[in-house]
């Protein structure tokens, strides 16, 4: 009915009329017949065209990796500096509950940083700038960024040289939006950057601090249970815990060094001995079962 109404209203290009003629639909045709013929049309169009039809919306593939920087702690920018689970052929986090909690926290922190970077598409920002007008867009951008805006400094565990370099990069990224590193108006730049990685780091810091405030109590709890070599942590984790203060979350995040713990430092502990004994027993059992199988 919708197609017939469009054809009756006037179809200058003849597209709707041609489609109706090809489908050869009767007024009382069943829905499954319509669907079957539309599917056949789709298959024929996509399968027989010499050139693939254009896609209405572009899809970008983004690799979300732990090899990324965060202004919560600039001293840890590589996966091996953050994730305990990379040890023992990527099974290391099974060793301690606190290691799993720490890796989970880092995953959320890094994921938030990548998501903010994806949202800061320079092409989209430039389009909005041209639609709204440069001055109005700049004012709205400052209002949106201003609440949590703080250029990189020593609180992010940057060296003075690193902070200066990041600030220069920030100024270069924001120039095409008519802003400097302090969100002060400047003359609009003519070149659009490919990406806004440092801008994303600055904006993501506030959300990452909220994530750290949510996850640090869990890391603390699991660390205490690991220190006491207790295994009954499930019930404790099921209880709700108030999040830490967001204002001090960055300092506590930097002080949390669970990610620096290594299996090599566990030598001689009861936990490692018990784990190795269990692993040995599992290996022997697996070998015994394999030997008893036909042909073993």
Question: Can you give a write-up of this model?
Answer:
By secondary structure, the chain is mainly α. It is built from 13 helices and no strands. The protein has helices at residues 2-9, 15-23, 31-48, 79-82, 87-90, 97-119, 122-132, 134-146, 160-174, 197-227, 233-238, 249-255, 270-292. The longest helix has 31 residues, at 197-227. It is flat, with a radius of gyration of 29 Å. The model has no long low-confidence stretch (mean pLDDT 87).
Shape from CA axes?
flat
Share of β-strand residues:
under 5%
Q: What is the CA-CA span between the terminal residues? A: 69 Å
> How many domain regions?
3
| Radius of gyration from CA coordinates | 29 Å
Structural class: mainly alpha
| Separate helix tally | 13
Write down the overall mean pLDDT. Answer: 87
Unreliably modeled segments: none
Helicity range: 55-70%
Main pleated sheet: none
For the secondary structure, the number of strands is 0
Order of helices and strands: HHHHHHHHHHHHH
């Amino acid at each position: 009915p919708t197609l017939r109404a469009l054809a009756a209203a006037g179809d200058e290009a003849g597209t709707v009329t041609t489609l109706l003629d090809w489908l050869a639909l009767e007024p009382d045709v069943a829905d499954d017949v319509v669907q079957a013929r539309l599917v056949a049309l789709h298959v024929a169009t996509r399968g027989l065209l010499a050139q693939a039809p254009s896609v209405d919306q572009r899809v970008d593939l983004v690799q979300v990796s732990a090899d990324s920087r965060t202004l919560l702690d600039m001293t840890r920018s590589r996966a091996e500096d953050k994730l305990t689970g990379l040890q023992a052929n990527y099974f290391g986090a099974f060793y301690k509950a606190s290691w799993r909690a720490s890796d989970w926290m880092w995953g959320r922190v890094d994921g938030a940083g990548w998501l903010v970077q994806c949202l800061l598409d320079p092409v989209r920002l430039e389009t909005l700038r041209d639609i709204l007008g440069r001055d109005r867009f700049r004012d709205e951008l400052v209002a949106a960024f201003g609440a949590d805006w703080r250029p990189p400094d020593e609180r992010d565990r940057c060296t003075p040289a690193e902070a200066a370099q990041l600030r220069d990069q920030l100024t270069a990224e924001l120039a095409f939006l008519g802003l400097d590193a302090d969100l002060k108006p400047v003359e609009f730049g003519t070149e659009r950057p490919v990406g806004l990685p440092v801008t994303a780091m600055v904006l993501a810091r506030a959300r990452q601090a909220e994530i750290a405030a949510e996850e640090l109590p869990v890391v603390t709890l699991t660390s205490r249970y690991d220190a006491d070599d207790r295994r009954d942590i499930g019930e404790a984790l099921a209880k709700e815990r108030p999040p830490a203060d967001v204002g001090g979350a960055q300092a506590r995040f930097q002080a949390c060094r669970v990610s620096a713990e290594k299996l090599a430092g566990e030598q001689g502990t009861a936990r490692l001995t018990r784990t190795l004994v269990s692993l040995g027993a599992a290996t022997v059992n697996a070998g015994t079962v394999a030997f008893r199988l036909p042909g073993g």
